[in-house]
Design goal:
This protein is an alpha/beta fold. It folds into two domains: 95 residues, no CATH class; 201 residues, 3-Layer(aba) Sandwich (Rossmann fold), CATH 3.40.50. Helix content is 53%, strand content 15%. It has a six-stranded parallel β-sheet with strand order 3-5-6-7-4-8, with helices on both faces. Strands 1-2 form a two-stranded antiparallel ribbon. The relative contact order is 0.10. Bound molecules: adenosine-5'-diphosphate (ADP) and magnesium ion (MG). Magnesium ion binds next to helix 8. This is Primosomal protein DnaI. It comes from Lactobacillus porci. InterPro entries: AAA+_ATPase (IPR003593), DnaI_N (IPR009928), IstB_ATP-bd (IPR002611), P-loop_NTPase (IPR027417).
Length: 308
């Protein structure tokens, strides 16, 4: 940053050497006259009139000119930063602050880094609640519930989750993506996980230690969204020692947990009961109690949007 100042000072000093100035080029005095008339400079001088002597303004002329040149030049000294005047003791300084566009991009990037998609399409990062069309009455209950969830989550850093159920293609995953992106924008860490793929990859992808760490991570994020619960093929082990453990931890720690499913909750209980080699209604009921404790069931209806 200093180097720009130095560079400009040199340029100004050069232009002071009037004899060497090519015909038609602007003198330092002319530049200073233009700079001082700039509306932003005038505004700054007015705001700080009580702190500034005439001498101080004169002594700050290099900085005022630097500000003016940076403001009016289409080529910025530092991309994405804009010059700003500030009171630097008794004098006027110039500093560089990120532009609004850069701040917004940085915030978006930070929000993206707070959402972890596991086995989910990347395009879901771009879905915002405002993008979701509101015209479809079959989705209104879900959108209202999402609004309530977010209000409560913002107040208490936790909230009872949502269990969106409905046919394939009605937009459940999209609505959850909107919710996830809003939570992340406000600073929450979200894991959005496609449960069937996650479960089927468990044994092959993880050594014992890394599996325990992965379960721990999923169990402890601020908001967990399990997409397509009910479509996974469960073994007793993945039901009780993976899914059961994750849901129990989330209950114990009051962590917000949401689901999407093609199955209504009552059917999900039957699905949990029959694993590969056994039928176990007691364990299924226990798991289902956790799901019901964690989330409120909402039915989403509408056309299949994949068939447009
Ligand atoms: P579900 O999870 O209920 O099976 P999705 O959320 O995956 O359904 O939505 C299916 C497809 O419909 C998406 O891939 C997307 O192309 C489209 N879609 C869903 N919701 C919307 C929406 N609100 N606006 C525009 N397109 C949507
Ligand atoms: Mg889906």
């Amino acid at each position: 940053m200093e180097s720009i100042g130095e560079m400009l000072k040199k340029a100004m000093a050069d232009s002071l050497k009037d004899q060497e100035r090519p015909a038609g080029a602007e003198s330092a005095q002319e530049l200073a006259d233009r700079a001082i008339k700039d509306p932003d400079v005038q505004k700054f001088l007015k705001e700080h009139a009580s702190e500034l002597s005439k001498q101080a303004v004169q002594d700050s002329m290099t900085n005022i000119c630097e500000f003016y040149l940076q403001k009016t030049s289409p080529v910025k000294a530092i991309a994405d930063y804009q010059a700003e005047l500030f009171m630097n003791g008794p004098l006027i300084g110039v500093r560089y602050l990120p532009t609004a566009a850069k701040r917004q991009r940085d915030e978006e990037r930070a929000a993206e880094s707070r959402i972890e998609l596991i086995d989910m399409p990347k395009k879901l990062r771009r879905i915002t609640l405002t993008d979701l069309d509101k015209g479809d009455p079959g989705r209104n209950a879900a959108l209202l519930a999402v609004g309530k969830f977010l209000d409560e989550y913002e107040k208490h850093h936790t909230a009872k989750g949502l269990y969106l159920t409905g046919d394939f293609g009605v937009g459940k995953t999209y609505i959850m993506a909107g919710l996830a992106n809003r939570v992340a924008k406000n600073g929450g860490k979200v894991i959005f996980l496609h449960l069937p793929t996650f479960i089927s990859g468990l044994s092959s992808h993880f050594s014992d230690n890394s599996l325990q760490r992965e379960i721990q991570r999923v169990a402890s994020c601020d908001v967990l969204i399990l997409d397509d619960i009910g479509a996974e093929t469960l073994s007793q082990w993945s039901r009780d020692d993976v899914l059961g453990v994750i849901l129990q931890a989330r209950m114990d720690n009051d962590l917000a947990t949401c689901f999407t499913s093609n199955m209504e909750m009552d059917d999900l209980e039957d699905h949990f009961a029959s694993t590969k080699n056994a039928v176990d209604p007691v364990k299924a009921a226990r798991l289902m109690q956790r799901v019901r404790y964690l989330a409120k069931e909402i039915i989403v209806t509408g056309r299949n949007r994949r068939l447009n």
